[in-house]
Amino acid sequence: MTAPTVSSTRHTLNFSAGPAVLPECVLEQAARDLIDLDDTGIGVLEHSHRGPSIDRIFEEAEADCRKVGRIPDEFEVLFLQGGASSQFGMIPMNFLREGCVADYVDTGSWTAKAIKDARTIGTANVAWSGDDSQYRRIPDEADLSWSKNAAYGYFCTNNTIYGTQWSDTPDCPAPLIADMSSDIFSRPIDWSRLAMAYAGAQKNIGPAGVTLVIIRKDLLEQGRTDLPAMFRYDIHAKKGSRYNTPPVFAVYCAGLVFKWILDLGGLDAVESMNRHKASLIYDAIDGSGGFYTGHADADSRSLMNIPFTTPNKELDAAFIAQASEHGMFTLKGHRSVGGIRASIYNAFPAEGCSRLAEFMGTFAASNRS
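and the corresponding C-alpha cells:
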C-alpha cells in the first residue's frame, strides 16, 4: 500500500508535543458546525447532550473508533473527562484492591506520575525503570520483573519527553493496561495482549477535553463498585459515556478525526506515513556527522516525538530561534531533557518534516566548529 500524504496549506509548522496539530479538513468542518450542526440551525456547542444530533455524534464516534482501531467486540469504548492523568488514579481505584500489587514499567515522567498516584491507593511494584539511563531506552522482555498474581501490569507505549516508543506490546502474565496518549492510532494495535488502553485526545485524536478508554469487558467486571459513580468505569459504560454532561465538542472532533484516518486508508497506511515522516528527521540526525545527537537509543526511537541536541546549549537556542524565523515553532525540548524536540503526530504534514530536515542540514553546515 502506498502511504498517504498529509499536506497543509499553512506556512506555519507547529511541532508542539500537545495540544497538537489537527487535520485541516477537521478544522474546516468544525468551523461550519459551530454555527449550524446537521441543518438544525443550532451549533454543535449549543446542542443538548440528550438530543438526537449528539446521539448521532457519539454513536458514529464509537463506531468509527472501532473501525479505525479494529477493536474487538469484547472491549467497551468510553469517552471520559478529566484528561489522561485522571487515569493514573482511576485505574488503581478500580482494580488495585487491598492486599494486591500492580506492576508498572517506568519509562519516563508519565509512568513515574502513574506510579506515584497508584501508591496512594495500594502497592505498586516497579517491574523495570529506565531512570538510571535517563530514560533513553525501552526495556527488553528479559529486563521485566513481573510479580506473581499481580492485579494488572501497566506501561506507556510512547514517551513524549524522552522520545522513546515500544516497538511491540510486552508479554505480561497479568491483565495489561497501556497509556497510549501520545501514539494512539499511529499504527495497528495488538488487542490480544491488552486488557485496557487509554489516551488523552490532544495528540492524535482531537482537542484536549476527552480521554478515550478502551477496556475489555472481563476487566470492567472486576472494577470496584464501592466508589463514587464518576470513578467507576462500569457506570460510564452502562450510560454510553453520558452519565454526566460529556465533553461533546471534544468527542465530536474525535469523531471527525476517526473519519479522516479511515479516509487515509486506516492504521496500516498511517503507520507507513509516520515511518516516512520520522525517517526524514532521523536521517538528518544520523547523517550530520555527530553535529546532532538524538536522546533515545536507536532501537527505542519514537515515530511521534524526536528530541535531539546540537553540540551545546547556545547552538540549541540559536537553532530554535532561527527555525522560528522559517515558520517552524514549538521546537524547544522539554526541561527534563533540554535541546530540541520535534513532535510529528498523525496530522503533522510530511512536507514539514522535509522542511525541518533541510533546515537541520543548513544549520549544521553553518555552525560546525
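(Above: one complete record from the training split.) The chain has a mean pLDDT of 95.
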